[in-house]
Known about the structure:
The chain is α/β, with parallel strands linked by helices. 39% of the residues lie in helices and 26% in strands. The chain has a single domain (24-259), classed as FAD/NAD(P)-binding domain. The chain has helices spanning 5-22, 35-46, 81-86, 103-117, 146-151, 174-182, 203-213, 226-232, 242-259; strands spanning 25-31, 51-55, 73-77, 92-95, 98-102, 120-123, 125-132, 138-145, 158-167, 199-201, 215-218, 221-223, 235-236. The strands form three sheets. Strands 1, 2, 6, 7, 8, 9, 11 and 12 form an eight-stranded mixed β-sheet that branches. The protein has a three-stranded antiparallel β-sheet with strand order 3-5-4. A two-stranded parallel ribbon has the order 10-13.
Amino acid sequence: MALEETAITACITRAFCEDFLADLRLDVAIAGAGPSGITAARYLAQAGARTAIFERNLHVGGGMWGGGMLFPRIVVQEEARTILEEAGVRLQESEPGLYVADSVETVSCCAAAALRAGARIWVGMGVEDLVLREDNRVCGVVLNWMAVERAGLHVDPMALHSRLVIDATGHDAEVCRTLTRKVRGLRLPTQDGSVMGEKPMWAEMGEGALVENTREVHPGLIVAGMTANAVFGSYRMGAVFGGMLLSGKKAAELALELLA
């Protein structure tokens, strides 16, 4: 078979444009393809919600790849075990109720499970702003290529609409910070109305707070994963990921309730 360079270009361009145009109107747009974002996407797509993740980096999985301090292993608790097993991740009990997983296998299996459920993952695209309507309700995301941001170029972004947005950007809570910075007088349901920022490490307290902190913090905007703990000023946890996975599942459940 003749392999012409322009045919390869046409295949890539056609597939990208068709899929991107199909995602201009979503049920849920997720910022960040870390453990909570990927988990939320899988459960949303399995329930039939049109879902896409926008990840600014060219890789997915957030902090899972490096495990703990570049030891490529992560820990999950018994409560989150089935979330990984459903994705095909192999677990080994190391301490009572604590399971160790290969971080590379975990990211690969979880991403594949989300994609096979019907979610879309766009890499290299960052959520730099939100689309708002009456009463400052969030109804979409504003996107740009991460390469544009890192090059310092002034290139206007593009936007898409979604019925809900999940901020799963992690420790920096970038989407929530953007919202509070740009909308004068807006207050989040935290002690001081702002993104409070995460506290130092206390694994048990951080894990315990994650699911509770996973909630709708503004009409149309849900926080999940470390974003939730950063918004509400809770502790960080290190290389234990059960709470992140459970947070992603809860975010999906909340979104489905709001979409109903």
